[in-house]
Design goal:
single chain; 195 residues; alpha+beta; Nuclear Transport Factor 2, Chain: A; 3 domains; 4 helices; 34% helix; elongated; cysteine-type endopeptidase inhibitor activity; Cysteine proteinase inhibitor
């Protein structure tokens, strides 16, 4: 009887000690699985090819566009975490285009599939980790200097770049004048097409 109590005590100390080692992260060093705490957000594996995750990200962008009268365009999902709540709460890091610039956003989408419930809980701009160089984009840097430069007006690439710049300025002008929260409604852009 005493031996059974001692065995049970030693076994419980051994189990608690193993759990403590896992909690300190020693389990990762030993290539053992680390036990998850229920309710904590966890990384979602294999989301790159998931139609469900992409549709949630598109839903988040559409809802944000409706609520904020924005014109974001979804590009791709960068990272996903999921948390089991009354349903699932998805923490999405996604890339979207805002007025021609790629930016990262963080969104929280709450889903209850048994009731067809889907709600955007949060959508905010995230600091992007765009750690690439011009050489990653195939850009060859020459010593052209900075500032204004004379360009040949007959060159088709120069004309295309100028037309693109004019369209971009017109788009910014339209968004500025239709944005009810803009403080610069009295500003007017004058675009002179010198080509």
């Amino acid at each position: 009887m005493v031996m059974d109590r001692v065995s049970a005590l030693l076994l419980s100390v051994l189990v608690l000690g193993c759990g403590y080692c896992f909690d300190l992260g020693h389990g990762r060093q030993l290539n053992l699985l680390r036990m998850r705490i229920p309710g904590d957000p966890s990384d979602c594996k294999g989301f790159q090819n998931s139609v469900e995750i992409e549709s949630l990200a598109r839903f988040a962008v559409q809802e944000h566009n409706k609520k904020q009268n924005a014109l974001l365009e979804f590009v791709r999902v960068l990272k996903v975490k999921e948390q089991v709540v009354a349903g699932k709460l998805y923490y999405l890091t996604l890339e979207a285009i805002d007025v021609g610039h790629k930016k990262w956003y963080e969104a929280k989408v709450w889903v209850k599939p048994w009731t067809n419930f889907k709600q955007l809980e949060e959508f905010k701009h995230a600091e992007s980790d765009l750690s690439f160089t011009p050489s990653d984009l195939g850009v060859i840097q020459d010593d052209h200097g900075q500032g204004w430069q004379v360009m040949p007006t007959k060159d088709t690439e120069v004309r295309d770049a100028a037309n693109h710049a004019v369209k971009f300025i017109q788009l910014v002008t339209i968004r500025t004048h239709t944005d009810p929260y803009s403080k610069s409604q009295d500003w007017h852009f004058v675009v002179c097409k010198a080509l």
